[in-house]
Description:
Elements: H1 6-25, H2 30-37, H3 41-49, H4 56-65, H5 69-72, H6 74-79
Amino acid sequence: MGTFPLVCAEKLLATGLLVKSRRLLRKIRQKDLAGMTGLSVATLGKIEAGTPTVEIRAYLLVLWHLGLLDEVFKETLGSTSITQNPTEKRVRLRKIAEDDF
Length: 101
C-alpha cells in the first residue's frame, strides 16, 4: 500500500474537526452519536481525529446524522453531476494484435 497523500489527510482532519465541533455545538455526547449511527465510540473518536483507516460509510453516516453531508460535499455536488452526459459511452481500450511486437 502506498503513502496516503497529505492533501487527503488534511481533508479528513478538517472533516473530523467539523464533526466534533458540530457534535459539541448540539451538545451530543460521543456515546449518544455512536448509538444513533450504530458505530462504536472508538470509531467515532477516530472519525473526529481524521483517521484515514475508517470506512467511508462510517464518515458518511456521521456526517448525515449531524446534517453536514451537503456542507462537506458542496463542491462535489455543485460542480459535477453523475448524470452529466448520460449518452457518453464507456471507455474501451484498443485491442493489441497478438503478432504486434
